[in-house]
Specification:
This protein has 285 residues and is mostly helical. 69% of the residues lie in helices and 1% in strands.
């Protein structure tokens, strides 16, 4: 008897639940297992199962690979619209959660417990503490530099980005408009990925987002240096599955670039060496 799929996350927006449910229906109609689908689209089972879990919005690339793998005749435009609706729904949900982030969380016993302080909050608390005891008055640039220096994880970095957006009093549409006026085009998905992705944002969307928040070029470089530092730190302990997938992609790219003549030469060399080794083992050196 086939195992029943896990329920779609109840915390997801209605649009994301609808998208995940539709993708599950496609897979069921096609009669495919995740393993069989992996063979078709070359994404890991974990990525494909995560795409329909409702725990987070999958990238469009993973979403379309899943859909096209289940139904090659699927209408890409229709599904792209459903994915964009889910993106909008998740953005609204995340913004609503952010506005309630200062509320206390209850322990099982009923005692209130505050959420973990972010890097930005810790810096502000330290600034306030010093100002109460001395005449020390740091500049805004010093405060930002201190906060960035304390960042060690993508979570901390994104908290600072959300704090920047809140401090500037900007909406995502206003950030996109500001960036566009400065020559950078940001999509809705770009702003969402910068604020709510699980990893450090890519360089171009991050640059556009910071410009959209009216950050000066000197400070933008400081943000980029911090992002690079965290990326390097996390690359050293990359997930084994992701590492294997990247190795496979690099190997496939190598063979794609290999010319016919080069490949023939390599094969000839290998055959020649094989014959020589066989002769040595048979007749002795």
């Amino acid at each position: 008897m086939p195992r029943q799929p896990s329920p779609i996350s109840a915390e997801a927006s209605a649009e994301l639940r609808e998208l995940a449910s539709g993708m599950r229906d496609l897979k069921e109609t096609a009669g495919l297992t995740f393993s069989a689908l992996t063979e078709r689209v070359h994404y890991s089972t974990a990525s494909l199962s995560g795409a329909v879990s409702g725990k987070k919005l999958p990238t469009w690339e993973v979403t379309w690979a899943f859909i096209h793998g289940c139904d090659p005749a699927a209408d890409e435009q229709v599904w792209k619209q459903r994915w964009e609706a889910a993106e909008e729904g998740e953005l609204r949900r995340s913004e609503a959660e952010a506005s309630d982030a200062d509320t206390a969380v209850r322990r099982p016993g009923g005692a209130p417990r505050q959420r973990r302080s972010t890097v930005a909050e810790l810096v502000r608390e330290e600034v306030e503490r010093r100002q109460q005891t001395t005449a020390w008055s740091p500049s805004e640039a010093m405060t930002v530099s201190t906060a960035l220096a304390l960042c060690t994880t993508p979570y901390d970095f994104r908290e600072l980005l959300r704090d920047l957006m809140e401090t500037q009093g900007l909406t995502s549409n206003e950030i996109r408009a500001n960036a566009r006026n400065k020559g950078i085009v940001l999509g809705r998905g770009d702003v969402f990925s910068v604020l709510h992705g699980s990893e450090i944002p890519e360089t171009e969307p991050l640059h556009g987002f910071l410009l959209g928040c009216n950050v000066g070029l000197v400070r933008i470089n400081e943000w980029h240096r911090t992002a690079t530092r965290i990326k390097i730190s996390h690359a050293r302990r990359m997930d084994p599955e992701e590492t294997e997938r990247q190795r496979f992609a690099a190997w496939r790219a190598f063979w794609a670039r290999l010319s016919f003549e080069t490949a023939l030469s390599m094969i000839s060399t290998i055959l020649f060496l094989t014959v020589q080794l066989a002769s040595i083992f048979k007749n002795g050196i």
